[in-house]
């Protein structure tokens, strides 16, 4: 009688490879189908403009929405647009549904509750067409500042009036207390943001007259003037 020896471990590995190979093949086939679906039906892009990039609690965030097709014309694919205001924790704080008729630019606003916390928020905008396809949603970061009464007087002076892509930016930060005396020998950390994304971070120190130097480089592919500098100083009188 012929005896056959089967390596169970090898058989299990071959079976696992077969399952993984088929899953990868199915995923690739699905992605190709979705890509072909979007290519046939066309694409839709959302562009959003806001009246500013940072706000205070109690203010309104005003925005305008443009919905374009693959030919950069006003899209006729959607009938509704959803706009969401997302807080720093990732939760949707407010949302509105706007009717879209492809003939005009939509506009709307969110009122920022004075009881909310400050921080980096996001505007997320998408159409009913985007919900049906694999196209990504539009998102824009917005800084909402809470009012904090400080015991520090601050003055920031830039060396030049304007800067371009790749420029080295220099500015002097002057810090004084409420008695108008210089805040000496204190560490100051700062972060630079463009369009809600951090591009630089560093620290400096005030001198005997309360002055500290701020230095950073702008990106060579600079496309926006929406900038923000955050300062942090540990100081007690």
Task: Name the descriptors.
single chain; 237 residues; alpha+beta; 5-stranded mixed beta sheet; 3-stranded antiparallel beta sheet; 2 helices; 16% helix; disordered N terminus
Number of strands: 14
What number is the mean pLDDT?
A: 81
Give the low-confidence spans. 1-8, 13-21
The portion of residues assigned to helices is: 10-25%
End-to-end Cα distance, whole Å, is: 96 Å
**Total of helices:** 2
Strand order of the largest sheet: 2-8-7-4-5
Task: Note the beta-strand portion.
Answer: 35-45%
Multimeric status of the protein: single chain
SSE pattern: HEEEEEEEHEEEEEEE
The description of the largest β-sheet is: 5 strands, mixed
Radius of gyration over C-alpha positions, nearest whole angstrom: 27 Å
Please state the structural category.
alpha+beta
Q: Which descriptor suits the 3D outline?
A: elongated
Please, could you describe this protein's structure?
With 237 residues, the protein is α+β, with helices and mostly antiparallel strands. It is built from two helices and 14 strands, in the order αβββββββαβββββββ. The strands form four sheets. Strands 2-8-7-4-5 form a five-stranded mixed β-sheet. Strands 1-3-6 form a three-stranded antiparallel β-sheet, with no helix packed on it. The longest helix has 34 residues. The protein is elongated and about 65 Å long.
Q: Layout of SSEs?
A:
Blueprint: H1 8-41, E1 44-50, E2 54-56, E3 60-69, E4 80-86, E5 92-99, E6 106-111, E7 119-127, H2 128-132, E8 138-145, E9 152-158, E10 168-177, E11 187-194, E12 197-205, E13 211-217, E14 227-233
Parallel strand pairs: 2-8
Antiparallel strand pairs: 1-3, 3-6, 4-5, 4-7, 7-8, 9-10, 10-13, 11-12, 11-14
């Amino acid at each position: 009688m012929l005896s056959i020896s089967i390596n169970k471990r090898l058989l299990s590995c071959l079976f696992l490879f077969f399952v993984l190979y088929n899953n990868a093949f199915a995923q690739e086939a699905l992605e190709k189908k979705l890509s072909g679906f979007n290519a046939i039906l066309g694409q839709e892009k959302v562009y959003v403009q806001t009246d500013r990039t940072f706000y205070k609690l109690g203010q309104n965030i005003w925005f305008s929405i443009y919905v374009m097709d693959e030919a950069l014309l006003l899209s006729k694919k959607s009938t509704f647009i959803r706009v969401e205001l997302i807080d720093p924790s990732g939760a949707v704080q407010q949302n509105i549904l706007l009717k879209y008729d492809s003939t005009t630019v939509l506009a709307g606003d969110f009122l920022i509750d004075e009881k909310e916390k400050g921080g980096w928020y996001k505007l997320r905008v998408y159409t009913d067409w985007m919900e049906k396809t694999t196209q990504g949603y539009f998102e824009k970061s917005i800084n909402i500042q809470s009012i904090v009464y400080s015991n520090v007087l601050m003055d920031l002076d830039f060396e030049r009036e304007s800067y371009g892509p790749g420029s080295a930016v220099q500015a002097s930060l002057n810090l004084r207390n409420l008695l108008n005396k210089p805040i000496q020998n204190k560490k100051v950390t700062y972060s630079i943001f463009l369009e809600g994304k951090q591009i630089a971070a560093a620290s400096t120190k005030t001198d005997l007259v309360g002055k500290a130097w701020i230095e950073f480089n702008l990106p060579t592919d600079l496309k926006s003037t929406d900038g923000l500098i955050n300062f942090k100083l540990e100081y007690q009188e």
